[in-house]
Amino acid sequence: MIVGLPKEIKNNESRVAITPGGVFELTKNNHKVYVQKGAGFDSGFGDSDYINAGAEILPTIEDVYAIAEMIVKVKEPIEEEYKLAKEGQIIFTYFHFASNNNLIDAMVNSKAVCIAYETVEVDKTLPLLTPMSEVAGRMAVQQGAKYLEKPIKGKGVLLGGVPGVKPGKVLILGGGVVGVQAAKMAAGLGAIVNILDINLDRLRYINDIMPNNVITEFSSEYNIRKHIKDADLIVGGVLIPGAKAPKLITRDMLKDMQPGTVIVDVAVDQGGCIETTKATTHEDPIYIIDDVVHYCVANMPGAVPYTSTIALTNVTLPYVLQLANKGWEKACDENAPLQKGVNIVNGEIICQDILK
């Protein structure tokens, strides 16, 4: 199969979909790989690395789309790419269709085969989303701690505190991968961490593995309203696979927060779990509503592309190889988890959750 690896063009997206090591595995299996010039540069991989792995370099994104039977990307196609997708072409990437009706319409019209990383499911886990959720969960606290600084309109709170001064308080909505990784980072800094979820088995697990400064609590509107009153940093990490995230914090609840409170909504790709969430970029990452700082960057792991690219390739490459070796129909027939990743085929919406 002819596999294309375009350079990401989303704002400040520095990741690349496959490392040179992954390209080597594809070419070893007799597949042809075309990489757009400079695609891996920001992740630490030069064109020569890809050439040495057996790929050929093409000058433009148009060239890559035109020749490839399968496009492997990191982020969803943006408007400039809509016209490049073609009928029958496999596009394997993070799509996050639920929050983007224009993208749904464009991919339906293209009649491409759209397979989404984020809906590939194994035993109720999302293996292709997990490593980026791990990165984003850890970054949520890293970024939140930064934006709590007073020069950036935060509360002026040091999350870990110092001797004689109490530590900051972190509220985490959702006990999934994002929530656990965020709790781990916040707890490591010495903050007081409250993590809320509706799954009591998950809360028991978190309670067992976390230190004493992480407190688990059942998620309800009452408990959320209670905790937001004195939280310094709020991390939104709620996920319903393929569908829009529920709005757990509404606009009217902002008035109950202290000025300078920071919200980091990691669920932004799925529409966000905060009503006031709107996607931002690394170039312009925050905005302020009712004196509450919102950080809602839709591609947080793109800021640490070396780590993220390797972590992503580790989990996606086996599926890329299956698709290349067998074609998408046979690969999906033989692999139920991969079949769940099929969202749109030849103009037909297969995964109905993206419409919710």
TrEMBL record:
Keywords: NAD, Nucleotide-binding, Oxidoreductase. It catalyses: L-alanine + NAD(+) + H2O = pyruvate + NH4(+) + NADH + H(+). GO terms for cellular component: plasma membrane. Residues 148-296 form the Alanine dehydrogenase/pyridine nucleotide transhydrogenase NAD(H)-binding domain. One of its GO terms (molecular function) is alanine dehydrogenase activity. Its EC number is 1.4.1.1. InterPro entries: Ala_DH, Ala_DH/PNT_CS2, AlaDH/PNT_N, AlaDH/PNT_NAD(H)-bd, NAD(P)-bd_dom_sf. The active site is at H96, D269. Residues 4-136 form the Alanine dehydrogenase/pyridine nucleotide transhydrogenase N-terminal domain. Pfam families: AlaDh_PNT_C (PF01262), AlaDh_PNT_N (PF05222). It is an enzyme of class 1 (oxidoreductase). NAD(+) binds at S133, D197, R202, S219, V238, L239, V266, A267, V268, D269, V297, A298, N299, M300. Substrate binds at R15, K75. SUPFAM superfamilies: Formate/glycerate dehydrogenase catalytic domain-like, NAD(P)-binding Rossmann-fold domains. It comes from the Bacteria. One of its GO terms (biological process) is L-alanine catabolic process. Belongs to the AlaDH/PNT family. This is Alanine dehydrogenase.
